[in-house]
Amino acid sequence: MATIRKLRGKWQAQVRRKGAAPQAKSFTTKQEAERWARSLEAEYERNGGLPDYRTAEQTTVAELLTRYREEITPTKGGADKEAVRIRVILRHPIRHVSLRRLSSKDVAGYRDERLKAVGPQTVIHELKTLSHAIEIARKEWGVVMAENPCRLVRRPKLPQGRDRRLRDGERERLLAGCSASRNRELHDLVVMAMETGMRRGELLSLRWEHVDLAAGVAHLPKTKNGHSRDVPLTLVVRELLAVRRGESPDGPVFTSSENGVRLAWERARRRAGIEGLRFHDLRHEAVSSFFERGLNVVEVATISGHRELRMLQRYTHLKAVDLLGKLEPAMDVS
Predict the structure, then answer these.
(1) What are the tens digits of pLDDT across the range 34-86?
(2) Could you tell me which residue ranges the Tyr recombinase domain spans (predicted)?
């Protein structure tokens, strides 16, 4: 039987079971206390008795994340980036807290402190990593916890997504600036980004054995979201790759490093006199152009690799006046 009461400005939940010591925990809100109590009671029912919290009591956040980084992170597509996120969390005082005592207040405090230094998207990724590590511990490593405190914490609100597109004359100026770059691959990288919607990392990881010029398709075995996909290659891209293949028939299509491309891009952008344009904006340009050519949402998602179709909404740039023409037949005024 659970008892919820307010004690010294906080809400305390206490769960009693015959033959077991009472379990109690304090929360900021009554809703959190009730949720914890329900979760603990459900745990009692599943286990037929008192849950064994000793492992959770003896395991710190640091120990959890260290094991997670060694066993789980290497299996992921973005392993390097996740390892960096884990290093950041391990520098924070939250690392000393045991999983048994880790509360939503601890997680919220980490969130708020990190938001003073980095953007919301970075913090969301870090919280997701911590949350997934806790879930793995609960489901696979035998660490008994009444709840995952990360799930009780609000995620930071993301700012409006970027919708920067190329303006009149910018495409020509940009390509001219890239052609003048000392990085001889930059021009082709930019063209392919604008034509295919591929990310910079995907372009730089592309290998000739995954390019079928006859079929007009490039296969990406490993992408940001962990899923493979095939990308159709336009005539412009096929011609460009045909020339490059003559120079290098096997191995990677591009040999530049990400940092080398980043530096070359910035110099070319300044040379072209273009402000506020990022390399990733070329993906937005490409995806938006797919819609303008008449492709539907599912077709565009197949090319771009978006797993959530709602994420494509900001690429459509639809106007009510344009949609009216599709809703109503042309009026006969004769």
Answers:
(1) 888 888 777 777 666 666 778 888 999 999 999 999 999 998 877 888 999 99
(2) 157-329
Catalytic entry in 87, 224, 227, 262: 224
Q: Which fold has domain 170-321?
A: hpI Integrase; Chain A (1.10.443)
Catalytic residue among 25, 187, 199, 200: 199
**53: annotated active-site residue:** no
Residue 262 annotated among the catalytic residues of the structure: no
The active-site residue, picked from 87, 164, 184, 280, is 280
Local structure of residue 95 (DSSP, 8 states): G
The β-bridge partners of 252 are 207
Please pick, among 25, 85, 187, 283, the residue that the annotation labels catalytic.
283
- Cβ 137 vs Cβ 100: under 8 Å: no
| 219 part of the active site | no
The verdict on domain 56-159 having CATH code 1.10.150.130 is: yes
Whether 87 is a known active-site residue: answer no
Would you list the domain boundaries of the chain?
1-51, 56-159, 170-321
306 as an active site residue: the answer is yes
Our answer to whether residue 283 is catalytic in this structure is: yes
**Is the pTM above the cut of 0.85?**
no
